[in-house]
Design goal:
This is SRPBCC domain-containing protein. Residues 12-142 form the Activator of Hsp90 ATPase homologue 1/2-like C-terminal domain. 28% of the residues lie in helices and 42% in strands. It is α+β, with helices and mostly antiparallel strands. The chain has a seven-stranded antiparallel beta sheet with strand order 1-7-6-5-4-3-2. Helix 1 crosses helix 2. It is globular. The protein starts with a strand and ends with a helix.
């Protein structure tokens, strides 16, 4: 099993960043790597319950991921499970993701994503690439909306 931790800094305050990573109207603006569109989704990380997204790449390939929101500490963190589906829609290995936001003490936000229990190092590398691209979209979105 492998873990992946990524950190970002935003000049926006923590309460805004928390909304951007939990509220459906914001999640849909940055969810998924660059070049990916959301074909279908149930993306609301503001309270416990199921979530899902079906992402479509430019070649028409479909990538489905689902999970359960396990815990929401409003304004601080959200924890959810994560599992990809195969071509037969069979759910694969389950891992766990936690988004954490906290004040940087200067009006901005320190954001941490911890993706735990990935199947192996290759999976961690693939997820690092996807999350990096997604967080690039998030950074652009926060800069546009939080001004």
């Amino acid at each position: 099993m492998a873990d992946l931790e990524m950190k970002r800094h935003f000049t926006a305050p923590p309460e805004k960043v928390f909304d951007f990573v939990t509220q459906p109207q914001h999640l849909t603006k940055w969810w998924g790597p660059e070049g990916i569109t959301l074909a279908e989704h149930v993306l609301d990380f503001s309270s416990p319950g199921p979530w899902m997204s079906i992402m479509k790449n430019s070649e028409g390939g479909i990538h489905k991921v689902t999970g359960e929101i396990l815990m929401v500490e409003h304004g601080k963190s959200v924890t959810f499970t994560w599992a990809w589906h195969d071509d037969d829609d069979k759910r694969g290995h389950e891992s766990e993701v936690r988004f954490t936001v906290q004040s940087d003490g200067d009006g901005g936000t320190d954001f941490t994503m911890l993706h735990r229990n990935l199947a192996d190092d290759d999976s961690a590398q693939n997820h690092e690439s996807g999350w990096t691209s997604s967080f690039t979209k998030l950074e652009k979105y926060v800069d546009q909306v939080a001004v």
